[in-house]
Design goal:
The chain is 51% helix and 14% strand. The chain is an alpha+beta fold. It has three domains: 123 residues, Orthogonal Bundle (Butyryl-Coa Dehydrogenase, subunit A, domain 1), CATH 1.10.540.10; 101 residues, Beta Barrel (Butyryl-CoA Dehydrogenase, subunit A, domain 2), CATH 2.40.110.10; 147 residues, Butyryl-CoA Dehydrogenase, subunit A, domain 3, CATH 1.20.140. Strands 1, 2, 3, 4, 5, 6 and 7 form a seven-stranded mixed sheet that branches. β8 and β9 form a beta hairpin. The longest helix is centred in the middle third of the chain and has 36 residues. It is globular. The N and C termini lie far apart (57 Å). This is Acyl-CoA dehydrogenase family protein.
Length: 401
């Protein structure tokens, strides 16, 4: 006896070619479709305007507060209990990037990097103090690790320092590319303890003397994200604001393993968003008296893109299963991030190519996807760094230096 598989949702335009969404249980599929409608109706109409201006739509925070999307993956904090599966969490990140990578990045910094740092790195008192307001988005968080002179090597070469004086830590140094930092209510700052040379985490509240975030101007990608360079000059932070369960960079790596998988899902969303735009345009655009969707070379680009999407989606479905089973490793996350962002680069290039000259103007959306992909390709570790992580895993030999 054979059964006919369900058709993909009409609003995915066939991007879910292998029907991955059907793997979600009914209750989680309803959450995903609710999120899809919210992003389509509330977020999509505003993104080009703010991307062009390089500004963040602050009214979006209020919209997110009523969406029920924050902290879904965290037991005890989201609106839907028990905590959502990692598959749903990944698909939600995908849906956000399918509309706009900047909004997905804002949400990922707040709901991923910052929230997860406190959720795993803080003690119970700290979680109770900070997380409820973050879950409701009454307070917005940020995450400061990258430095002006340190990116991929920051684990062993962090220049920002922390010195304990009595029951207060004094932070000095600088951070760069810190999303949300210009308006966040608090920033999780990572610094090297000068006494034991270990990396520790500190929650620095907005307005703390000596803490000076300055917006980075002139970006060509993720223009909605308010990235900042932060100067820390004798910033005094109480011991109560030090993340009590973070004692070395090994603990920090646990956080990055989780959030890196989120970037892989974001890359998938960018692929889907670009592919959908290209497919719709190809069906409408007339050349030589017929739609360009009927041209062999255009179909070649579309099918290659669909293959990249389908392969990446399958990898991420299994990655989510490993997370749910508790057997998720750093190299699993690294392979997914490196692979999906590489495929994303190809898909956005193919999609932009289908638009021809129209592909370089914001009116058609594809230019935004094309530009934003470059930021996702680089942040949370470049493809080369992910390669070295996986290479060490499979060979037993470190090639980092």
């Amino acid at each position: 006896m054979t059964t006919t598989p369900p058709a993909p949702p009409d609003d995915l335009l066939g991007a879910d070619f292998y029907l991955y969404e059907a793997l979600l249980p009914d209750d989680e599929r309803k959450i995903l479709r609710k999120a899809r409608a919210f992003l389509r109706d509330e977020v999509k109409p505003m993104v080009n305007r703010y991307w062009d201006k390089g500004e963040f739509p602050m009214e979006l925070i209020e919209k997110f507060r009523g969406s029920g999307l924050t902290a879904l993956s965290y037991e005890g904090y989201g609106e839907h209990l028990p905590a959502a599966s990692h598959l749903l969490g990944g698909m939600l990140a995908m849906e956000m990037s399918r509309v706009d990578a900047s909004v997905a990045t804002f949400f990922g910094v707040h709901n991923g990097l910052s929230f997860y740092s406190i959720y795993t790195g803080g003690d119970q008192e700290q979680r109770e103090r900070w997380l409820p307001a973050m879950a409701s988005m009454e307070k917005i968080g940020a995450f400061a690790m990258t430095e002006p002179l340190g990116g991929s090597d920051v684990s062993g070469g962090m220049r920002t320092t922390a010195k304990l004086q009595g029951d207060t830590w004094v932070l000095n140094g600088a951070k760069r590319w810190i999303g949300n930092a210009t308006f966040a209510d608090h920033v999780v700052v990572w610094a090297r303890d000068v006494d034991d040379n270990q990396v520790k985490g500190f929650i620095v509240e907005k307005g703390t003397p000596g803490f000076m975030p300055v917006k980075i101007e002139g970006k060509i990608a993720l223009r909605i994200v308010q990235n900042a360079e932060i100067a820390l000059n004798d910033v005094r932070v109480p011991e109560a604001n030090r993340l009590q369960n973070i004692n070395s960079f090994r603990d920090v790596a646990e956080i990055l393993r989780f959030t890196r998988s989120g970037v892989a899902w974001q890359a998938l969303g960018v692929m889907i968003g670009a592919y959908e735009l290209a497919l719709a345009y190809a069906k409408e655009r007339q050349q030589f008296g017929r739609p360009i969707a009927g041209f062999q070379m255009v179909q070649d680009l579309l099918v290659k893109s669909l293959g990249d999407i389908t392969a990446s989606w399958g990898m991420l479905v299994q990655l989510a299963r490993l997370q749910d089973q508790g057997i998720f490793r750093d190299d699993h996350s690294a392979l997914a991030k490196g692979f999906t962002t590489s495929r994303m680069r190809e898909v956005v290039a193919f999609s932009r190519e289908i638009f021809g000259g129209n592909g370089i103007v914001l009116d058609y959306d594809i230019a935004r996807f094309f530009a934003d992909a470059e930021a996702l390709y680089s942040y949370e570790g470049t493809r080369q760094m992910q390669t070295l992580i996986v290479g060490k895993s499979i060979t037993g030999q470190s090639a980092f230096v």
